[in-house]
Amino acid sequence: MAGLMSGFGCFTHAVVRAVPESLARDALRSGGLEVDLLKVQKEYEEYVSVLKHRLGLEVLELPADDALPDCVFVEDAAVVCGDTALVPRPGAPSRRRETEAVKAALTQLGLNIVEMSDESATLDGGDVLFTGREFFVGLSKRTNQRGAEILADAFKDYAVSTVPVRDALHLKSFCSMAGPGLIAIGSSEAAQKALKIMQQMSDHRYDKLTLPDDSAANCIYMNLPGKGDVLLHCTPEEFPESAKVFEKLKDHMLIPVTNQEKAKVDGGLTCCSVLINMKKKI
Amino acid sequence: MTTEVSSDGEVKKDEEKTPEDQQQTHTPAEAAQEKSASVEAESGQEACVSSPPAAGGQKKEKTISRFLPPWLKRQKSQSQDKPSDQESVELKQEQTDGGGEQTEEKKREEEAEEKKREEEAEEKKREEEAEETSVGSADTQPVREEKEGESELKEEQAVIPHEASVLSALKLNKKMKMVVCHVTLLDGSLFSCELEKRAKGQYLFFQVCEHLNLLEKDYFGLSFKDNAEQKCWLDPSKEIKRQIRNSQWQFTFSVKFYPLDPSQLTEDITRYLLCLQLRQDISSGRLPCSFVTHALLGSYTLQAELGDHDPDEHRLDYISDFQFAPNQTKELEEKVVELHKSHRGMTPAQSDAQFLENAKKLSMYGVDLHHAKDSDGVDIMLGVCANGLLIYKDRLRINRFAWPKILKISYKRSNFYIKIRPGEAEQFESTVGFKLPNHRAAKRVWKVCVEHHTFFRLVSPEQSTKTKFLTLGSKFRYSGRTQAQTRQASSLIDRPAPYFQRTSSKRLSRSLDGAPVVSVCDYSQAAGAGENGPPLELNSDSKSPQVEVVQEPDADAATSISSETAFETDGAGAPERKSKLRVQGENIYVRHSNLMLEDLDKTQEDVLKHQASISELKRSFMEATPEPRPSQWDKRLTGSPATTLRMQTQGVPQETPPRPGMDSRDASKSAEVKPEVNGQPEVVEVVEETVVIEEIVKPRSPAPEASVPMETECAAEVKEERSLSSDSDSEEEAEYHAQPPCTSISTQQIKEEPEEEQEAEHTQQAPPSETESQPITETAEPTLSAEEEKPAELPEEEEHTDEPLATPDEAPNGHAHHAEAPPTEEEEEPHIVNGSASRVEAEHLPQVICCSEPPVVKTEMVTISDTFAAQKTEISTKEVPIVHTETKTITYEAAQLDGHGEGEPGVLMTAQTITSESLCTTTTTHITKTLKGGLSETRIEKRIVITGDSDIDHDQALAQAIKEAKEQHPDMSVTRVVVHKETELAEDED
Predict the structure, then answer these.
(1) How many Å lie between the alpha carbon of B278 and the closest alpha carbon of chain A?
(2) Which of the listed ranges B101-115, B555-569, B861-875 does the model predict with the highest average pLDDT?
(3) I want to staple B470 with a disulfide (CB 3.0 to 4.6 A). Which of A182, B300, B598, B722 is the partner?
(4) Using a CB-CB distance cutoff of 8 angstroms, which residues of chain B are in contact with residue A161?
(5) Chain A residues with CB-CB distance to B under 8 A?
(6) Do residues B302 and B249 share a domain?
(7) In three state form, how does the secondary structure of B137-175 look?
(8) What is the count of structural domains for chain A?
(9) Is residue A3 one of the residues assigned to a domain?
(10) CA B865 to CA B885: how far, in whole Å?
């Protein structure tokens, strides 16, 4: 019997969404960089392939919507924990409608859907770090206190702590879980400060995996049957120093995944999928 | 202490009533005639006046209590209990005297006795004062004078005699009084046992544990609901009676420390009890869970209590009696059943263990939540748990202070502070402050922190601080075993697993549905009090008892000893002393405005004559059932009492040169004397209520850096302080230094924090006079409403407030009005009254009291005056309607005010007065800012006069006024509410 808070990193399904053609021109970005749509699409296909073929997840691919240039980043459109999916209200007005398709997909998967209907609340899934024991919610340009409150209400079992996020788009722009109790964190001052806050707020002890590059700290950890600890992380081409750090994780199955082009529109590895564990039905 | 007598008292009370009535009606008149001394005469007179029924006013008062803040309310209920207590005692006395008829002689005897007693009390008081060396004599002097004045006045109160009997009763009852108490157990059942009344908490707790066959008992505790319906833990090391005060002997057995890892508990029975607690927590919503978790935990509950799912026996409705969640849906029940099926073969003990394994992971497991505000006034929750202190805003955790991070926890008034260990990069310790709803709440959270820290983080509890002779602040420490110790102890448990019956949660859920048993009982108690009340209200005589009742809290306050700890340590001595003091307190607060006024203007002779005429009038009143009618004159009269008192106490010749303004006052008193009265516009059924809400805001805790210097600064003063408070253990503030577990026990000392002490000093230094005194003064307030009548006089009464701090000696009545009249005699007099009153309160109310007792002192002043009011229109001009007016002043006070401005009185920074008027209320706001010892203190005094006829819901208006005042200054605390009521009781239309 799966108890509460067991099986961190166990996933069976992934929801992804194809890259819209409008991404290159219209997707929100902080750097103002030119984006090569083809490269983005290639990265996306590689990503989906890893999930589907290499890891054997059931991948549910949603069609792109040109009216939603950022729709490939499905992470922001849903927070799934256990059997519950919170459908948030993204901070960027242009992205609000992204949730519709995602919600439909999650509903179809049989999750309990909680919608963030409060007009004053905003939350991007990219600001939500679930450690397996608790949630940290970054208060950023995209996520506000009210959004965090609603998340806390949706996942009552867990402590939900807020972390101010500055100098980055999302909380997970510079951190993520690299294993059970292991937080991958960037080296920037903002990242380190955020980590301090998280450590102070938590009743649990976390190890940290410090990466020279903030963006490299966004990785995907899974614990899959037959494969053990799996980590999708940045490629040495992108972040050579950080890649070396990942390579020191001997027990993990390490899978470098290219993310160079998506990074130009502030997309991280975690941004492109919503991972779900459906196997254990309780 | 009230409870003991009340049980028999209530029964007898009714019978008692009649004799008492008679007694009262007789005595006042007699007394009045016999007294030759002017003061005495006055007092007698007062008694006369006071006897007429005050039903209306008292009723009002009762109802008002609904709207008062909890701390006030609590006091209130205490006071309501009191009468029965005292009355019953009185009854005994009457019986011994022979049938309840008191002859004059008896009366006199009693008076004599009373005097003696008072003198003794005074003596004591003086001794105490003497101890307080640093107190300026100027301050104390008036107080004494006041007391003397009181003793003379005492005759007014038929009540006082009871005091003596109370004492004796207490003595008699001391021997092995047994009391039955009820403990609600975790399975919802009730455990009753008989206890010696003075038994400590421990005794009862052990009884319960024995009943439960529980060995690992350190995780559990007994709690009770205080009068504010707040859950309080019963301290095992202290007497139960001292802790529960007026509450019922109703307790709840519950988990106090939630073990971090229940699997480490040795016995299944302990785990079972923990499960029961958690089921309560979950179904009541205290422990929030997701749907899935509700279902999972519910399924383990079913497995533990029903065993394997039986498809034949267990249809879907078999669980509908269980409460798995606060809002249980059919869907949830289905899920529970589905999961239940999957637990096949699991034993009850295993199911419990599984239940706990999941429950312990919930983020709110074992978190004790307290409402608070942060430094910005934002609503937050403080969560005390095994690992430290958690700060929540709504559901979000916004901060966390692990025990190792916390150097010190303390509370001052309603503030709770934690001193934080500096981080790696930081140089200084920082202090974080939180504002709790009230002082008791602050203390409660502090205690819970002390206990949790000790239990979970220390290896063994701190050494008690008994060695310290004089300590300021609470001595409270956790005295039980720590988790480490209890684990060690339970590892030694060597007994076969005890058999125990798992009661069905069905039963549990039922008990949970309603209010906990305890609270129900509280209600019943309240109801009981209410029953007692009505007869009192109806009865004119009963009034005096009530007055006394009201005073009682004050008395508590009066005894600086009354701090909780002192109580506890004090054996039998305390009550006695207390009651003596109480007598004083009463006297102080009961006065008659008429008398005072007259005194002011007339020679003694005049006064006597006047009184005689009044008593005549009164008789006529009594014959004709009076109808309530208002007299504005009376209202104004109220202001005067102070004046007279002043004169008395000062020994000022009674003949004061009549002032121009005074005429009108006289008129108000007796229509006969002053024909002008007739000319007054008539007001029918006007009821005035005056509320003075004083709020004191202490600046937030000094900035961390600042605090250090402050500590050093005050160190010297601190010592003085201690000597001052010699026997009182101030619980107003306390600190607790968190010690890391590694520290050896010996090094864990509890330091008296200079900081605290400074605070304490601070309070004591607070200029006692003005603010506090005001309640009494209220009487003057009527002026506001009465303005129309005597615009000319107003300034006199109103002026004082403006510079309260600057002129501590004159306790301005606080009727903040802009006009600053030069201190004329009149003004001074009121001051004195106020001053003395305030002083009394202040003296007796060192902050000490606050913690242990509700920081409220309630005093009541009842004045009934006979007056010729203005004529009614229907009445021909010749006929002078007689209006009977009752004036009542009730003071609710937070105790932190200090009478003796010790040392620096503070520097007045600003003082302003704002007046605003609305439909039926006049609000005068008086704001003073003072600077003392680097801290600025802001006092806001609001004077709200509600004027209107009986159609107005005064209670509502009052409540509204209080509420508004609170809302306007959310970060301030209300330290005092004075309700001054003037109601016209009767009219004689002949």
Answers:
(1) 14
(2) B101-115
(3) B722
(4) 396-398, 400
(5) 1, 3-5, 82-84, 112, 133-134, 137, 145, 148-149, 152-153, 155-162, 200-203, 282
(6) no
(7) HHHHHHHHHHHHHHHHHHHHCCCHHHHHHHHHHHHHHCC
(8) 1
(9) no
(10) 5
DSSP letters spanning B734-800: EEEE---TTS-GGG---PPPHHHHHHHHHHHHS--HHHHHHHHHGGGTHHHHHTTT-TTTHHHHHGG
Distance, CA of B974 to CA of A52 (rounded, Å): 66
Helix (H) or strand (E) holding B397: strand B396-402
Does residue B251 share a domain with residue B275? no
Can you tell me the mean pLDDT for B588-613? 38
Q: How many domains does chain B have?
A: 3
Tell whether B279 and B357 lie within a shared domain: yes
Cβ(B284)–Cβ(B512) below 8 Å:
yes
Taking the C-alpha atoms of residue B438 and residue B975, their distance in angstroms, rounded to an integer, is: 10
Nearest partner of B757 among B650, B848, B657, B645, judged by Cα: B848
Residue B340, domain member (yes or no): yes
Which three-class secondary structure state does DSSP give residue B641? Answer: helix
Residue B961 domain-assigned (yes or no): no
Q: Could you give the CA distance from residue A47 to residue A59 in angstroms, rounded to a whole number? A: 11
Q: What is the CATH number of the domain that holds A117?
A: 3.75.10.10
d(CA B633, CA B644): 17
Global pTM reads 0.54
Last residue of a domain, one of B310, B332, B366: B366
pLDDT at B87: 28
Asked if A3 lies within 8 A of B343 by C-beta distance, the reply is no
Query: Pairing mode, if any, of strands A112-115 and A128-130?
Result: unpaired
Enumerate the residues of chain A whose CB falls inside 8 A of the CB of residue B288.
156-157
What the block records as the tokens of B400 is 């966390």
End-to-end CA distance of chain B: 49
In a domain, A282, yes or no: no
**Domain limits for position B356:** 258-366
Q: Please tell me whether residues B434 and B374 are part of one structural domain.
A: yes
B332 part of a folded domain: yes
ipTM: 0.91
B557 within a domain of the structure (yes/no): no
Q: Is A251 annotated as a binding residue?
A: no
Residue A99 lies in a domain: yes
Domain boundary among B462, B478, B503: B462
A89 annotated as ligand-binding? no
- pLDDT band of residue B890 (cuts 50, 70, 90) is low
In the prediction, which pLDDT does B147 show?
40
Q: Which residues of A carry out catalysis?
A: 170, 271
Looking at the structure, tell me whether residues B400 and B421 fall in a common domain.
yes
The answer to whether residue A68 is domain-embedded is yes
Q: Tens of pLDDT along B86-124?
A: 322 232 333 333 333 444 445 555 555 555 555 555 555
pLDDT digit string (tens) for B176-217? 788 899 999 998 899 999 888 888 899 999 999 999 999 998
| Residue A81 lies in domain | 13-276
CATH number at residue B219: 3.10.20.90
One domain for residues B277 and B312: yes
In angstroms, the separation between the Cα of residue B390 and the nearest Cα of chain A is 8
Looking at chain B, the whole-number percentage of residues with pLDDT higher than 90 is 17
pLDDT of the residue at B843:
37
- Same domain for B308 and B360, yes or no, is yes
Instruction: Copy the structure tokens of residue B594.
Output: 């008429």
Q: How many CB atoms lie within 10 A of CB B23?
A: 21
* B332 and B432 belong to one structural domain: no
CA proximity to B290, closest of A8, A153, A162: A153
Neighbours of B192 (CB within 10 A): 10
Contact B363, A158 (CB under 8 A): yes
Q: Which of A3, A112, A149 sits opposite B396 (nearest CB)?
A: A149
By C-alpha distance, the chain B residue nearest A161 is B397
List C-alpha distances in Å: B274 to B185, B383, B691. Answer: 12, 20, 48
